[in-house]
Specification:
It comes from Neoroseomonas lacus. There is one protein chain. With about 180 residues, the chain is an alpha+beta fold. It has one domain. It is built from 6 helices and 5 strands; from the N terminus they run αααααβββββα. It has a 5-stranded antiparallel β-sheet with strand order 1-2-3-4-5, with helices on both faces. It starts with a helix and ends with a helix.
Length: about 180
């Protein structure tokens, strides 16, 4: 029974309804959308490099490092700011390679009949205003079952604004020291 409810909640969260989605489909399928994303993963020192590999294969070869590794990562300020901003919710998973942070369900104190879940996408190595996207999901309790409910689009936008403000704060602290 619990498994069936989990599957139903998962399928409900994947709904294709315009009222549930925060992002339009044409943003990912149009040529202009691809052009906007193409320039984000450029720059030598604009993100986190994992496992000490260099993004520049000639620099890695000059340093005597193997050139077969890929230096995947996301912007350190956006990543840390996203984790800080969503820290009030329990963390389900965090993937620094793909830039995805998924929280578990969270019920605010005093509101046991509703719960929230968030998924954040850090979308590149540069600190840009469009470098983070947050999707928020909400469910309300009806009897013994949780059913999907609408989320105000301003909720996700407010979380994104808080992430960006925190990222700017982290960057200014880092450059000031």
């Amino acid at each position: 029974m619990l498994c069936a409810l989990g599957v139903a909640a998962l399928l409900g969260a994947c709904s294709d309804s315009d009222s549930v989605r925060n992002v339009g489909r044409d943003e990912y399928t149009s040529q202009s959308g691809r052009d906007r994303v193409r320039g984000r993963l450029t720059g030598q020192d604009d993100g986190v490099v994992l496992f000490g590999t260099s993004r520049n294969s000639s620099a890695a070869a000059d340093a005597g490092a193997p050139s077969g590794g890929a230096g995947l990562g996301v912007n350190a300020y956006l990543w840390r700011a996203t984790l800080d901003t969503l820290s009030f919710m329990p963390l389900a998973s965090a993937d620094p390679f793909g830039g995805v942070i998924i929280t578990d369900w969270y019920s605010p104190p005093g509101a046991t009949a509703e719960r929230f879940k968030a998924t954040a996408y850090v979308m590149g190595r540069q600190l840009r205003s469009d470098g983070v996207r947050v999707s928020v999901f909400r469910q309300v309790r009806q009897g013994n079952n949780w059913t999907d409910a609408l989320v105000t689009p301003a909720t996700a936008a407010e979380l994104e604004d808080r992430v960006l403000a925190r990222a700017r704060e982290l960057r200014s602290q880092n450059t000031g020291s």
